[in-house]
Amino acid sequence: MVELLQYFNWTYVSAVYTDDSYGVHGIKLLKSEAKKRGICFATEIQLPVIYNEATYREKIGQLANLNRTDVITLFCIGAAIMPMLNIMAGIIKNFDQIHLFGSEAMGNSWLLDNIAQIKTGFVYTRLISNNIPDYQNYLENLRVENINSNMAALIKLSYEQIMNCTFKNGIKNVQRCNSSQTFGTSLLPGYSFYVSDRVIDAVYVFARGLHQVLKATCPSLSNCEQTTKISGSLLLDTIRNSSFPSVDGRRVDINSEGEVKGGYTFHYVIPGNKIGTWQNINIGSWLGRLKMNASSISVLKSISVKAQCSEPCKDNKIKQRIHDKPVCCWTCVECPAGSIAINETTCYPCGQGYLANKQTRCIKIHEIFYSLDKRISKFLVIPPLVLSVLGMVCLLFTLYIFIKFNDNPLVKASGRELCYLLLTGLLLSFLFPIVCICRPSRFKCQTQFILDSLPLTISLVPIAMKTNRVVRIFDPTRRITNRPSFTRPLPQIILSILLISIQIVLLLALVIMQFPKEKIVYFSSTEVHLVCSTTQTQILFAHMYNSILIIICTYYGFRVRNTPSKFNEAKCIAFAMYALCVMIVAFFVVFVVAATGSSNEILQQAIQSYRVVLLAMVILFCFFAPKVYIVLFPRKILFNEESTAVCNSQTDQVLVR
């Protein structure tokens, strides 16, 4: 019965049973097995075996307002079933939608005929039994007059019920029974044979057990005094763990507990199309395990049956017991973020880098890295890229002008070699934002670390060389007949390379100490960042040399502020250095605040991209925009001593050259 309840997922049912041995022990075993399968009872009603209408109505009234269950299990003897069902039909609302599930006591044919009058469906169990022809023939030819005195009363009672007569005198309108008349074919099909094979088996069990004891105590089976002194415990031990063939060909096996392996069939009874008729559908059987008839149970499955206290939990929720309710009643509580529900009972936290989905699975979180990913603010990525592309276009245009007008006096006076070196550093700076949006890897992280500081070094060294040359040329303490040393292009390029090599050695040392590579940062329970493992200490040490160069360039820029007005490249240098200092201080403050106040390394990388590309743009426009303008539009410049000139005078050009 419990396996059938479990099969239909009827986990919340009511129980009605009689207070006799059959009902009390039957419901006790039913509850014990049901508890193992997670099935509980909404209501348990015990009815007295002797019918009393007031008592029945009072107790069955507890079923008047059934909630969350349409299934009632019955463990009652046959005499109590019909009165109970009649009262149920009058008390319970929508009784035709209730499903009854009865034990084998409901399987008697005479009872089924009466239950069919109750317009509701019900399932009942029946012991698998076989008809024994010899026993059937014996009953059909049985006469009351041939029965001994011990059995006469019982046979007479059965005879009166079956033959619809009476042996008593003085009862009107009832036919007098004939004790010499046989039962014949008046026996209802299944009435006498329903348990006849089990009764015969029981007789044979006792007889065979007694025979085994007698053979053991008195092999000759004659003149044995011990035969009158056989104990019940000895006979019981002999019966246990025995096996023998039944009269109908079955094998009767008795286990160590004295129980016989039995089999049951399940039947579903529904009212027929005509009044007083019913359909009895075999829906399955149980022989050690449940076996259902797929073609038959479709009728039962098509009917909506409510027999669950609580609905199954879905969408990553677990069951939480309700106080003062049975174990199968619960509320559904959602698991915390980052956890999944296991068997609707436990919230299992997913590991770092994993997120729970609605299908109660831990799925890996896709890493976010500094890129054009829609999960990253476009304001952090697109502006540096736009400035990078714009800067490279302007740089290539400047390079084109310098190459095309390579022999222009202004281009020559600007120090072409140092300008080309400066443009190389700026080009590498403009590549930095593009490198940043690539997926982090060992190669990418190392390249990014180098491009963060080395291009600025390559740009600052030529500026330092140019400002140093201007300071030495216009030094008032220098004798005008002596040419300053290291002012020719080749020595200045060699010296610049040596100065740049200092930064390269510094970067190599930092890389050897801690090689930059990709790493996972668990920014939050729902967000994972893929970044480079470059530390803030590495970044600060990488820019120490650049800071010294900026201080030197700013100092020289301040020194050359009073150079002749016709040589105001020095003034452009001074302005560029002031702007660089302001921007670097601002970026340093922002970077420190971002690094200490937030673990968002993607934001820190965006700040680096802005810093590198904006510094490069300032240097490019401050140093080369005036030169390109003068080269392209020379006639618009008034070369008089009082005007503000952007190019060098012929005298200054000779000195610089």
From TrEMBL:
InterPro entries: ANF_lig-bd_rcpt, GPCR_3, GPCR_3_9-Cys_dom, GPCR_3_9-Cys_sf, GPCR_3_C, mGluR, Peripla_BP_I. It is found in: Cell membrane. The lineage of its organism: Eukaryota, Metazoa, Cnidaria, Anthozoa, Octocorallia. Gene3D superfamilies: 3.40.50.2300, GPCR, family 3, nine cysteines domain. It comes from Paramuricea clavata (Red gorgonian). Keywords: Cell membrane, G-protein coupled receptor, Glycoprotein, Membrane, Receptor, Transducer, Transmembrane, Transmembrane helix. It is a multi-pass membrane protein. This is Metabotropic glutamate receptor 5 isoform X1. GO terms for cellular component: plasma membrane. It comes from the Eukaryota. GO terms for molecular function: G protein-coupled receptor activity.
